[in-house]
Amino acid sequence: MTKIAIVGSGLIGRAWATVFASHGFDVALHDVKQEAAQAARDHIAVNLRELAGHGLVEDPDGALARIRVAKDLADAIDGVALVQENGPETVEAKQALFAEMDRLAPPDAILASSTSYILASAFTEGLAGRGRCLVGHPVNPPHLVPIVELAPSPWTDAAVVDRAKALYEQAGQVPVVLRKEKAGFILNRLQAVLLAEAFRIVGDGVASAEDVDKTIRDGLGLRWSFMGPFETIELNAPGGIRDYCTRYGASLDRMAKESSAGDPFGQATVDTIMSEWKGAQEPRRIADLSVWRDERLAALKAHKRSAKRKPA
Q: In CATH, what number does 3-177 get?
């Protein structure tokens, strides 16, 4: 069995453990608080049962049996092919953790960080093994949303990127590779633009927050659940992408420029959104909604697995 180490057993770490164990990997789970890692393993058992209920995992008990709680960091990364780090989201914390992992891990082990924003070059430059380090950024929750962004530093070995891509694919993920470093990578940059415009629309009094959500949920989101933006516009003009840009490029450019000024997330806009929002912003409700979201994502993932891919 190929061995994987998960360093950090919070929300993302336990989801990664679910991903790898459910695809036949042996997983060592490490946390600075061993009791937290044990609690995470108990939570993973729930994840696996839920996935099995949608036909996404054949043997949840067998998958759970492949996850062990490591005694310490050295124990976790002994003999592994990949270390998936899920530590604190600061440059200093990652510098310290990657230095320790680089010292302890097998020479050919890949060291990947789940960071959602920090560039790999910011915390790996001084490492002896910096060529085997990169970002492997998932989307929350990784066991239900399979995209993983591979963001190498300028000195990451291309062969390491290829090996990482193959491992993530073996684990049922959908890896995409950045050709150069860019803060926020791909998904968060796209999400940031959409969120900013959503806030502007509410802040400018154009529409309510609820109607903006409906526009994505019952409009763009339906197409985007199985097509990307380029695939979408290819079908929105008779001659495809080039024809679409000829027809609509000027108007799209005007809208983009209109939306480039000011802070869309100002307090006045946030106050407007919250004055209209129906749900209380409290932990119990957020937790219940997260369970509902995960159930819907599992159902969608099962549907997409069974659906035919579009023709080339």
A: 3.40.50.720
